[in-house]
Amino acid sequence: MRARWTVKEEAATFDEYVRRFPIAVRRLLKMMRQTIREAAPSAEETISYRMPAFKLKRILVWYGAHTGHIGFYPGASAIAEFKEDLSVYKGAKGSVQFPFDQPLPLDLVRRIVKFRVKQQARTEGLGADAE
User: For residue 106, what is the domain's CATH number?
Assistant: First the structure.
C-alpha cells in the first residue's frame, strides 16, 4: 500500500487530505481521526505542515500517511512518556511510525492524546475545558 501524496498537493481539510490515498489507507486515517476526537473532544481539527492535526490552544498531535506507515507526531515529551509502549515501533524524538501491515494501537494513541491534553492544560492554563 503506497501513499499517493505529493508535496505539491495541499489539502485544506481532512477530507481533501484523505481522498488522495488508497481506500485501505483512508480507513486507517479515519480510525486515527476518530480515536483522537474521542480522546480530545474539545480539540479543533486542522491541517498543519500539510497533515491532519488537532489543537486546543496549540497543536496536540499531527498524523499522516506516508509510504508504508501512518506517522503519529505527539511531540518529544509524549514519546518519552510512552517510550516502553512505543518501543516496538520505529520512531524518532517526537514521532512514531505505525506500519500499514499491523493493527493500529488505538488504545495507545488514545492514552497519548489524553496525556497531551493534560500536558497542554497544565502549560496553557486551560483548566476545566481540558478533557
Answer: 3.90.1150.200
Q: Rounded to an integer, what distance in angstroms lies between the CA atom of residue 84 and that of residue 50?
A: 29
| pTM for this model (two decimals) | 0.88
Host domain of residue 116:
14-123
Task: Classify residue 73: in a domain, yes or no.
Answer: yes
Would 9 be classed as within a structural domain?
Answer: no
In a domain, 2, yes or no: no
Burial 20-46 (b: 16+ CB within 10 A, else e): ebeeebeebbeebbebbeebbeebeee
3-state SS string over 58-117? CEEEEEEEECCEEEEECCHHHHHHCHHHHCCCCEECCEEEEECCCCCCHHHHHHHHHHHH
| Residue at grid coordinates 506507515 | 69
Rounded to 5°, angle at Cα 16 from 1 and 12: 130
Give the model confidence (pLDDT) of 35-85 as tens digits: 999 999 999 999 999 999 999 999 999 999 999 999 999 999 999 999 999
Tell whether 128 is covered by a domain: no
